[in-house]
């Protein structure tokens, strides 16, 4: 069987690794590349969804899995479906849950899904006037896709005004910030709640905690994610059940009423408050770095689950997990998420006994070098979070590259 994975980061390496681990005789292809993926898949560099669909047709690909949200938002699933090609992920209409924060917030309001109070603006002066009347902390979000960096938590009025300026006047994320959402800041602890959804059935995955800030103790700028851990103590069985009822069931019901055929992963970024779970945002694909941990904890055959999702057969699937703890620590280039340098040789990978998923790496003259902001994902599984944590930080010490940076507090106090 020929499988195509679209994307070239740590998430895609983890998906490719799991598929091959479950099915060693399958032939793997990947759109994009890094030094890790290139060892297990045939890699092709293509830019447009039409080029990718052409490649899948010509190569007789049996099944495609999409990693990045940008391709889903552009309608890669619609293009593949039009050609009779099997692909995992929501179509363009369904992907609006992630590609438009305004759409998502209005959807949640309409279908009674718990979320923070909000206001929407397409005029920076109106947004400024609104914020100037507020004294409490606010969250300012770009409407469109901004690679996980379009959210600003403003503890002061000035921080909120600065965020409006950056998004709407300076347009740091271009048209993604043409509209913004200003919402009430919620107190609590975050959880990434992912689920498989075939349009009729929702099957939740174990809860994860993603660490967004660049530095220890949640300091520094927002990143695409500096690490992840599962399970999470503040997401116990009672909270999982509440999330299923209040978030996933209502989301599916809302999608059905809107006539949206959602088949793929629904990712609800939650804030667990004293009042229960509130949805901060939706993503319409596997999270990064949550996927790196979830692939290690998934006992069942991943591809069979993905195929069942596409074929609306999830209700017949038994999805099993190992019941252990998993952790992922991101090794980043110094300066990430702002200015950083690439091209440094990575040493010690052969000595490292942890599972390493590559993100921003490439091969140059037989050597593995840095080629991005997030470079490597070092992962481990243990009987407990503390056990997994002990393994991962011990093994990280064996890896080195110039200006390497990572958080030392992943998995503490969860």
From TrEMBL:
Q: In which pathway does it act?
A: Purine metabolism; IMP biosynthesis via de novo pathway; N(1)-(5-phospho-D-ribosyl)glycinamide from 5-phospho-alpha-D-ribose 1-diphosphate: step 2/2
| Family to which the UniProt record says this protein belongs | Belongs to the GARS family.
> Could you confirm whether the keyword Disulfide bond appears in this record?
no
Q: Which organism is it from?
A: Pseudothermotoga thermarum DSM 5069
Keyword set, alphabetical order: ATP-binding, Ligase, Manganese, Metal-binding, Nucleotide-binding, Purine biosynthesis
Q: Which PROSITE patterns match?
A: ATP_GRASP, GARS
HAMAP family per record? GARS
The gene behind this protein is purD
Q: Source taxonomy lineage? A: Bacteria, Thermotogati, Thermotogota, Thermotogae, Thermotogales
Provide the protein name.
Phosphoribosylamine--glycine ligase
- Where's the ATP-grasp domain? 105-311
Any one GO molecular-function label of the UniProt entry:
metal ion binding
Q: What is its EC number?
A: 6.3.4.13
Query: Top EC class per UniProt?
Result: ligase
An example GO BP is: 'de novo' IMP biosynthetic process
Give the NCBIfam families listed for this entry. Answer: purD
What reaction gets catalysed by this protein? Answer: 5-phospho-beta-D-ribosylamine + glycine + ATP = N(1)-(5-phospho-beta-D-ribosyl)glycinamide + ADP + phosphate + H(+)
